[in-house]
TrEMBL record:
Pfam families: tRNA-synt_2, tRNA_anti-codon. This is Aspartate--tRNA ligase. The keyword Nuclease does not apply. Signal peptide: none annotated. It comes from Kineothrix alysoides.
Length: 434
């Protein structure tokens, strides 16, 4: 019999052959006269069978989390889910662990606190479900990227060490840069706008930094921002339309390419048709009226209000998403374009998904004069922003875009309680290690 080196997803093509496949021993489950040896490969957990008749070594020699090359016979078996059994002939141990895992990682899920789950991240991620989360996240990014490229967006990479904050507020990390002040980018806002003047449509998927001092289930200090920016738009609604199509495309992409993970994590993929939109002020009043909630903050949503609005929309329309438009100017950064009819209001929006804000977007000011005027009204140091204002000064099309928080999006898709579950190695106010 010929011995071939195979990947897990090729096994079905090798019934009747002896194959070699490598991976880590995920779990050994002893039965009365044989044992299941589960092999963790790149994406699949492969079930192998140890039997005294075929296997040429004692089972006691095997240890969980050993890295091995398995030689096995792929035998047709109609009772098996896969249509075959993988009977182990021999195992070559390449590396054995020094100690056994301090946390049980090979059950259906890792049964521990979120702190331990994250403290032991390098190994807890080996759990089948834990690692599937980040395959889904990969699929989200691939789907988004494929969609945006199809729509003729150019992918860019912008600096994360910057000279000024783009989003305002106190949540900016400072650092010393060869004797000068520098910051960690809160967003690629300035740079993606500049690149609209170059490529018309651009996007970036990269880390950004927010010095959030609050320990909440939705705030990270480092997260992945999915940003796009497009020129020659007629209105900010065009950005919302593009995001709607992007989400629809991404869910289809996941459905097509991530079936095993969708099944394993029991993901409920939302159906995206048209996403309902409500104006900010109307949403505030609606929540107050429907849920007898007193409005305490007239300029922003409280987390509870985001949840209630989503609930209301879901019950009325069936949509898991809702756009909220016309956010108050004073809560939006200086680059946001205002509604000419009502200066208190911006031509911007947020997208809420299953109770949480996952996107902010809108139209930007493209006129140099208008931008300078607004900055003056805000008492900003115009000189400091000279390099940003260059694009306005030397010609810019009407444009707008958005930023979507990848971890928030993933965690809501997976209906998790905390954004950290969808962050490989979260950075929060208490966490820098691992
Ligand atoms: P904003 O500051 O609203 O907008 O951020 C956009 C999206 O990023 C996510 N997000 C976060 N995720 C995890 N932890 C955080 N601390 C955190 N902060 C924000 C959210 C949010 O909706 N430049 C604009 C976008 C634009 O207009 O293009 C911006 O950064 O999902």
């Amino acid at each position: 019999l010929e011995k071939v080196v195979v990947e897990a997803d090729e096994l079905k093509n090798h019934i009747g052959n002896i194959v070699q496949i490598h991976g880590s021993i995920y779990k050994i489950r002893k039965m009365s006269d044989f044992a299941f040896v589960l092999l963790r490969t790149k994406r699949e957990i492969v079930q192998c069978i140890y039997t005294k008749e075929i296997s040429e070594f004692p089972l006691e020699e095997l240890e969980e989390e050993s890295c091995v090359i398995v030689s096995a016979y792929v035998q047709e078996e109609s009772r098996s889910k896969t249509g075959y059994d993988l009977k182990i002939k021999n195992i070559n141990v390449l590396s054995a662990p020094e100690a056994s895992s301090p946390i049980v990682i090979n059950n259906k899920f890792v049964d521990t606190s979120i702190e331990k789950l994250l403290d032991f991240r390098p190994i807890t991620l080996r759990n089948e479900k834990e690692r599937a989360i980040f395959k889904i996240q990969e699929g989200i990014v691939d789907g988004i990227r494929e969609f945006l490229k199809k729509e003729r967006f150019t992918e860019i990479r912008t600096p994360k060490i910057v000279y000024a904050g783009a989003e305002g507020g106190a949540n900016i990390f400072r650092l010393e840069y060869f004797g000068r002040n520098a910051y960690l980018a809160q967003s690629p806002q300035f740079y993606k706008q500049m690149m609209v003047g170059v490529y018309e449509r651009v996007f970036e998927i990269a880390p950004v930094y927010r010095a959030e001092k609050h320990d909440t289930s939705r705030h990270l200090n480092e997260y992945t921002s999915v940003d796009f920016e497009m020129g020659y738009i007629n209105s900010f609604e065009e950005i919302m339309q593009t995001e709607t199509m992007m989400l629809r495309y991404t869910f289809q992409y996941l459905e097509k390419n991530y079936e095993p993970e969708i099944k394993l994590l029991k993901i409920n993929l939302p159906f995206v048709h048209e996403i309902p939109a409500v104006k900010f002020t109307e949403a505030k009043e609606l929540i107050a009226k429907e849920y007898h909630k007193e409005i305490t903050d007239f300029d922003d949503f409280e987390p509870e209000e985001e949840k209630l609005l989503c609930r209301w929309i879901k019950e009325r329309t069936g949509s898991d998403f809702v756009f909220v438009t016309g956010y108050p100017s004073k809560k939006r950064p200086f680059y946001a374009m205002e509604n000419k009819e009502n200066r208190e209001e911006t031509l911007s929006f947020d997208l809420l998904f299953r109770g949480l804000e996952i996107t902010t977007g809108g139209q930007r000011i493209h006129s140099y004069r208008e931008q300078i005027e607004k900055m003056k009204r805000r008492d900003m140091d115009i000189e400091q922003f000279e390099s940003y204002l260059m694009m306005h000064k030397y010609g810019m099309p009407p444009h707008g875009g958005l930023g979507l928080g990848l971890e928030r999006f993933t965690s809501k898709l997976l209906e998790q309680e905390n954004v950290r579950f969808s962050t490989l190695f979260p950075r929060d106010i208490n966490r820098l290690v691992p």
